[in-house]
Amino acid sequence: MTTTDTPRPPSQDGALKRITAFVGAENLSLIIALIILVALIASQSEFFFSARNILNIGQNMAVVGLLAVGMTLVIVSAGLDISVGSMAGAASVVCALVVNATDMVGLGIAGGMALGTVLGLVNATIITVLRVNPVVATLATFSAFRGLAFLIAPGGRPVGVLDPELRFLGSGRVFETEGFPGIPVSFLILLFVAVVAHIVMKTTVFGRSIYSMGGNPAAARLAGINLTSMKFRIYAISGALAGLAGVIVTARTSSGQPASGTQGLELEAITAVFLGGALLSGGKGTIVGTMLAVMLIAVLANGMNLLGIPTFYQLVAKGLLLVAAVAIGQWRLARSERQQAQAAAAGSQ
Amino acid sequence: MSVHLSIKSVGKSFPGVRALGNVSVELKGGEIVAIVGENGAGKSTLLKILSGDYALDEGHVSLDGTSLDGGTPLEAREAGFRLVRQEPEIVPFVSVLENIYIGEMPAGRGGRVDFARMRREATAMLARYGFAGLIDLDQEGRTLSPAQMQLVEILRALKPGAKVVAFDEPTSSLTQRETERLFDLIRQLKADGLAVIYVSHRLHEIMEIAERVFILKDGAPTGDLQIDATSEEEIVRLMVGRDLDAHGMRRKPVEPGEVVLEVEGLSSRWHRDISFSIRAGEIVGFAGLVGAGRTELAKVIFGEYPRTSGTIRIDGETRTIRTPSDAIRANMGLAPEDRKGEGLILVRSVMENASMAVFHKLSRWGILRQAEMLETVEPLVRRLDIKTPSLETEVGKLSGGNQQKVVLARWLAASPRLLILDEPTRAVDVGAKAEIYRLIDDLARSGLAIMMISSEMPELLSMSDRIIVMKDGRISEPVPRHEATEERIVNLALGTAA
């Protein structure tokens, strides 16, 4: 079995092989699942392939997708960030307040992302300086940051914001022509962030160090990687992306939302990362896999809505999906450990 | 009671590997049989078949007529086969008593644990085997010394019903005196009519305690001899399949160059006032008992553990070393003792593992340059003759010797001035060992200073230009190679007069 998320020397294989190499052999099963799911839903609902619905899926992906990109870095480094939804909520409020106060969308975006970054640094501080396990640390801030979001929203209520530029960010479309409904701006933002993250994870010292520290922190430290500074950077990025997700929520709903629109998204983001092939123990996972999983989850949620499945069932389904995602990962790990044991038993040469 | 363990034509394969084939041994009560072989010879596989950890593929195993062919660990234990594992699993926050009975606590009325009976039995065992006073049954697992952990593991094995007790490398963490006590126990088990299996690399122990020796090579038996009728030399020959000078190769002396490493007055939690130096081209061996502070010294020098005083100079320049990355900047490399725990990222590729210490050198603006990574790693893989299907293969899938070479490759990529090797040939088989020795010799000849910690006397004696012996956090005067003998080193390590 070859890993697909390691840098590989360029090869002059056929186009199909190159695509497989980019997507990753392990991600093929995700693509197949996605195709089956799409076929299944489309056969039950003719509305599925309508332009409006496709746009809708694309928009829905944006917020979860941004959280999932940050979460990929965190989980590959063998951490976890449960607070992303709460950070997004707080950032959404701050973005609305800043735009209302200054009339400058750019400042609103910067404010939301800056708050997310700061909250991410708070997470990193708790994890590194106070040495609290990441699950517990971000479970605590999951609650604290949500409280913060309500506190900074005057009266704890959504903050309305009417700015056409901001609206464009959330609900706008580009490349709209006759017969083609265009591409949601929010989806393009996600795409841009994901491409950058993919390049960072694959080709930079920072990205490769994340894989090393997640795979074996002791060995990474002895090889000269500063784990503390890595964690600060990783959780800050997760926070910044959560902040951007919050900005998009504000843009879509024309209001800073302390809770609505971001609650429960940490679950979807974590599910997507595991479904995308990351290991709970760290050291494995790719942006490509995560993005495919985000797409799968968005299509699934959309399909369940189109088919009129009640919300309560959908919640159960989301929970089951997380269990399935991690179980598949554990099964893969057990299989690869068996192979390692056999290699070790084979011993010499 | 007449114990009879019968192993008939047993075989076991893993995909692509025949780990064990056609192994037959008979064992009777009152016998002590040693099993020896190199790493990967199949000793562990055989023990794991007997203990029910692995299912056998061919042949039959029975103990006093009870078939253990499809056995589970529980069935094997109940039938009377007990394995004393090399690295016992101890639960840290429960008492010694519960640790002994873990998984097998006797239930009293209403399913409640019969602590009184456990205590009675355990106390009786301690008294019977002369361990009273060595361990407190109410002590928590985390407070135990390695020898006490071993004792808990032994008591687990000796619970009522034991017929065959197998010891897997039992002395690796024991002192001389503790080893003697263990031997007394084994003799008592023999007198009680139990059969004992003793697996060890230490041939002199086998000559002392065993009556028969069963030798495995590449999964097949190559000898089943009475100890009285054989010698260490013969056993080694049957193990490796060729005559071998016990001291292996002898390194040709090198004219040492400039002083590379100078440690002066170094103290830490483990060490008192340590000063020594290593020159370019020189290999300085560090001998000592387990727990003497050698691994800790390596980690203090490398910035992993803090030091309380002392200076470290590299090439005459005083360097501030507080973290491993400081040490790497000061041109040091460390191949740690615990290769899997601290050396390698098993789930990542050979390429990444080999290049991770020099990521910053192989990048521009933080972006790694594929071509330079390849240019760095590929020649090293060839030079060290690392046998791997590709550079993208996960390191966890390589053999022990090749894994160790990947660790060496990582430090060679950093072209250090000082290389610290902690037990460089641990869990490496004989063939790969010779290769690693040759590599270390090459490295020294190319001008590196090498600090080599080792617990293997032949390795120390044949490779080192000087040997420093550690005892209780202090070091001896370096012993030059022409004065170094096994007796002298052992005496320094034990603190006994020569």
UniProtKB/TrEMBL annotation, chain A:
One of its GO terms (molecular function) is transmembrane transporter activity. It is a multi-pass membrane protein. Keywords: Cell membrane, Membrane, Transmembrane, Transmembrane helix. GO terms for cellular component: plasma membrane. It is found in: Cell membrane. Coiled coil: none annotated. InterPro entries: ABC_transp_permease. The chain crosses the membrane at residues 20-42, 54-76, 107-130, 136-159, 180-201, 232-251, 272-300. PANTHER family: ABC TRANSPORTER PERMEASE PROTEIN YPHD-RELATED-RELATED (PTHR32196), INNER MEMBRANE ABC TRANSPORTER PERMEASE PROTEIN YJFF (PTHR32196:SF63). This is ABC transporter permease. It comes from Histidinibacterium lentulum.
Automatic annotation (TrEMBL), chain B:
One of its GO terms (molecular function) is ATP hydrolysis activity. CDD domains: ABC_Carb_Monos_I (cd03216), ABC_Carb_Monos_II (cd03215). Residues 5-243, 254-497 form the ABC transporter domain. The keyword Transport applies. Pfam families: ABC_tran. SMART domains: AAA. Transmembrane segments: none annotated. The keyword Cell inner membrane does not apply. Keywords: ATP-binding, Cell membrane, Membrane, Nucleotide-binding, Repeat, Sugar transport, Translocase, Transport. This is Sugar ABC transporter ATP-binding protein. It comes from Histidinibacterium lentulum.
